[in-house]
Specification:
- There is one protein chain.
- The chain has about 625 residues and is mainly alpha-helical.
- It has a domain of about 180 residues.
- Helices cover about 70% and strands about 0% of the residues.
- α12 runs antiparallel to α13.
- The longest helix is centred in the middle third of the chain and has 48 residues.
- The N terminus is likely disordered.
């Protein structure tokens, strides 16, 4: 039974009034502004603790800080392979603010329309500055203090978000727990960061108390990079191991390859933003569906008032059917469009690994010719562009793919399903059979032309091992008549080929719009695809800075230089590791004395004796060493 419009309006209005009366005491946008205060405090503290490696003498007041206060970085987006998932979930905590920026709903300043680009730039910098402590505390060398600061800052964001959700858990579109659906990914990421910072604090405290050894500094050469170089130097196995169907068709894990933190963070943030975008789209669908239900009820009341005898009754029934089909198709294609974009995210990671391995091997044939030597400046900018553009491409690509799939679904419904529902199945089958037969005849004639050309108009094979006949004409007179008479038919056939070309280009272009790793432009126009250019530039930067062979070579040079420098200072270079980075002049002199006396035992007896017991003990030790 259909509800009357008045009942529908009253029910919808009551629901929205109930959900819309909630006013939270927490304004997240205002809190974002105030969060800059503790964010700047944490940045200043960590910057003051950071020591400058090369301090220049300047005639200003900077000498008061000594070698303190260096600019800190949130994370290395090029060569960071540790804490990848921590950084990825830190990016995930920013998902809600990124969606506000994407929808251009967050604007900290009100300025004219022509300056909206500057507003978005300022808004993006503010969002980045408010979430800067998450990354800075994860990457700081001062683990104990940074874990305390990071835990405190994450706890503040977690508490404010939980308070906002508990005060207004429901919404105006989805009803119950709508706010929870929007903010649970960010809460999950913040909870993970709380656990991560707590783990850092416990581990740093145990190191500080001497219960555990301090971890070594970040190595210049990662383990997987060294394994990759060893695999290159090792002889390939004579018989390859048999791969499973999943390894052959889907993905094969490579222990000698790791994705950088940029790719992991981009993928995590893209997943969460795609989820939020789908939820927002579903909210809009619910709103439009309610409005269409009200309009459909009004049409139903009109048909009832005219007793289904009005002149507009057939049109109204078709409109109702169109709305019903559109709502059903749009709802069903949400799942297919979502799965398509999710598969794209995984496929992009697989393509990244495949392209990087090809570049490491010196293979550039998979790239267009104009991208074999890209601009260095554009490649550097591509690193900053890639992550944001990848997320935007996925979101817009989802919407475009959803629209295209909905149109395809509408075509299927009106071509196959509705005729059967309206008892017009025979007419539908007749039309489908005629169309299929027409297309089959056209394709058959095209195939027949190729068969005739291969049979009668080409000379025989020169060798039985040849795969095809040589491109040498035979029966030229018949060929010229064949070419002449088919000229007029191919004019008409070319019209259909042109339309099919346009249709296939539109379908492939819209279907692959979210794939930033593949250009949808034709050969020669790839430079107009800015997303693909950013992808290529990012690949080249990673190739030049994380190539395992190059990094291994640089590691050998650095290690050799470091060892030679230590050996010049102290012959027993391992003493530097045991004594630490700071060695006093007195200690170094004593070690030189020990080295000299051990190599010249007779000098021990000639030493001037002192009244102290330490000198006699030291001399006795040297005598024992010389006797041994």
């Amino acid at each position: 039974m259909h509800r009357f419009p008045a009942e529908m309006l009253s029910t919808t209005s009551r629901t929205r009034q109930l959900n819309g009366t909630c006013v939270s005491s927490v304004d997240l946008e205002l809190f974002l502004h105030y969060s800059l205060i503790p964010s700047l405090f944490i940045i200043l503290v960590l910057s003051f603790l950071q020591r400058r490696e090369h301090r220049k003498q300047r005639d200003d007041t900077s000498h008061l800080l000594g070698n303190r206060f260096e600019i800190i970085i949130p994370l290395d987006l090029v060569g960071t392979f540790s804490n990848r998932w921590s950084y990825g979930l830190a990016f995930g905590a920013t998902a809600n603010k990124v969606m506000f920026l994407f929808s251009e709903g967050y604007q900290p300043l009100q300025i004219p329309q022509w300056a909206q680009a500057f507003v978005l730039l300022i808004g993006g910098m503010e969002v980045g500055l408010s979430h800067f402590p998450f990354f800075a505390c994860l990457s700081s060398e001062f683990r104990l203090l940074s874990s305390i600061l990071g835990f405190s800052y994450s706890l503040i964001w977690f508490a404010v978000t939980v308070l906002y959700i508990t005060e207004c858990p429901h919404g105006q579109f989805l009803g119950r727990y709508e706010t929870v659906l929007f903010y649970w990914p960010s809460l999950l990421c913040l909870a993970f960061l709380l656990g991560r910072f707590l783990h850092m604090f416990v581990k740093s405290l145990r190191v500080h108390l001497g219960w555990e050894l301090q971890m070594e500094e970040k190595p210049f050469l990662e383990v997987h990079q060294a394994q990759h170089v060893k695999r290159l130097l090792r002889k390939p196995p004579l018989q390859e191991t048999k791969k499973s169907w999943f390894q052959t068709r889907i993905y094969e894990w490579d222990p000698c390859f790791q994705f950088p933190s940029r790719m992991i963070g981009t993928t995590v943030l893209a997943f969460i933003c795609l989820y939020l975008f789908i939820v927002i789209e579903f909210c809009m669908f619910v709103y439009v569906r309610d409005e269409l239900d009200v309009f459909e009820g009004e049409l139903e009341s009109y048909i009832t008032s005219v007793n289904q005898t009005g002149t507009l009754t057939p049109v109204i029934l078709q409109v109702k059917e169109l709305m019903s089909v559109t709502k059903g198709v749009w709802l069903v294609t949400i799942l297919s469009a979502s799965l398509t974009c999710v598969s794209y995210l995984f496929h992009i990671l697989a393509c990244y690994r495949k392209h990087m391995k090809r570049l490491w091997a010196g293979n550039k044939h998979f790239l267009p010719l104009k991208f074999h030597n890209p601009s260095s400046a554009e490649s550097v900018v591509a690193i900053a562009r890639y992550s944001g553009w990848q997320i935007a491409y996925i979101l817009w690509g989802y919407l475009i793919i959803h629209v295209v799939q909905s149109l395809c679904g509408m075509l299927i419904m009106y071509s196959l399903v509705l005729p059967v529902i309206h008892n017009q199945g025979l007419e539908m089958l007749q039309g489908l059979g005629i169309g299929t037969l027409t297309i089959s005849i056209v394709l058959g004639l095209m195939i027949l032309q190729v068969w005739i050309a291969a049979t009668f108009f080409l000379q025989p094979k020169m060798s039985a091992a040849d795969r095809q006949k040589p491109l040498a004409l035979n029966n030229r007179k018949v060929f010229h008549n064949f070419n002449y008479f088919l000229f007029f038919y191919n004019v008409l056939l070319g019209l259909g080929a042109c339309l099919s070309r346009l249709l296939i280009s539109c379908i492939l272009g819209t279907w692959l719009i979210a794939r930033i790793d593949r250009t949808i432009m034709q050969n020669g126009y790839e430079g107009a695809d800015m997303g693909f250019s950013a992808w290529i530039g990012m690949l080249y930067v990673d190739h030049y800075h994380t190539n395992p062979v190059l990094v291994s070579f640089c590691n050998i040079l650095i290690t050799g230089h470091r060892e030679r420098r230590l050996q010049r200072a102290i012959k027993y270079w391992y003493l530097n590791q045991s004594a630490g980075s700071r060695i006093s002049t007195r200690s170094r002199t004593r070690w030189f004395l020990l080295h000299t006396l051990v190599n010249n035992p007779r000098l021990v007896m000639l030493r001037k004796s002192r009244s102290g017991h330490g000198s006699r003990d030291f001399t006795q030790i040297l005598l024992t060493c010389s006797d041994s």
